[in-house]
Amino acid sequence: MARTPRYQAPNLIRHVMSRGNGRMCIFLDESDYREFVYLLGETVEAHGVQCWNYCVMPNHYHLTLQPTQPNLSRAVARLNSVYAQWWNRRHERVGHVFQGRFKDQIVDQDSYLLALSRYVVLNPVRAGLTDRPEEWRWSSYRATAGIELPPAFLGSSSTLRLFGDAPDATLQPRFKDFVADQDHDATLADRIRSNDRILGPRAFKEWVAALNGNAGSDNGSSRE
User: Fold this and answer.
1) Are 107 and 116 in contact (CB under 8 A)?
2) pLDDT tens-digit series, residues 126-181
3) Which residue from 62, 142, 169, 211 has the highest number of Cβ atoms inside 10 Å of its Cβ?
4) Is position 220 within any domain?
5) Rounded to an integer, what is the distance from CA 160 to the centroid of its chain?
6) What's the number of domains the chain is made of?
7) Alpha-carbon distance 152 to 30, whole Å?
């Protein structure tokens, strides 16, 4: 059965997730994490993609990306391919590193982006790896919260603008309070974990479908 082509229209916000083959751990030590974050920055800058946030876990990663061109598939395929080759060489392994196609959800900025900004950086807490998101070094939380300087490729200010029109230093406590809120709607997180291709109300889904019909494909790579 042919794979469903990805929506490639630019400027849409995407939740991207990719997992190790057979759920194996593909980030084994600090060098692995550092190399992936470096390649992430290199890839998004080379492909004109804005990175809103990220979280790298032992056997998978989450990204929130906004491509400015119809090239999401090309960018993520490049990221995974280059990292996989590097990882296999370093660990003297052969074969697939990532499991199948990466997950890609288009996210409505008005109804789901805030929830996604929390969902991504809380992954280490949900997995029992840390008690608080700031304890996990391999996510964008610390930079967005103002605990450390953001890497050049990270659009942390874009995430902070979701909490108002003010200087970053004013918005960072709001971001931290939002992530720490224990009374958030679990239904939104369940939808993010689902296989839904578009997260948003019906009108948004219809708009995306129409937009994609006018955008063309990513030179065939949408079926990778």
Assistant:
1) yes
2) 999 999 999 999 999 999 999 999 999 999 999 999 999 999 999 999 999 999 98
3) 62
4) no
5) 16
6) 1
7) 20
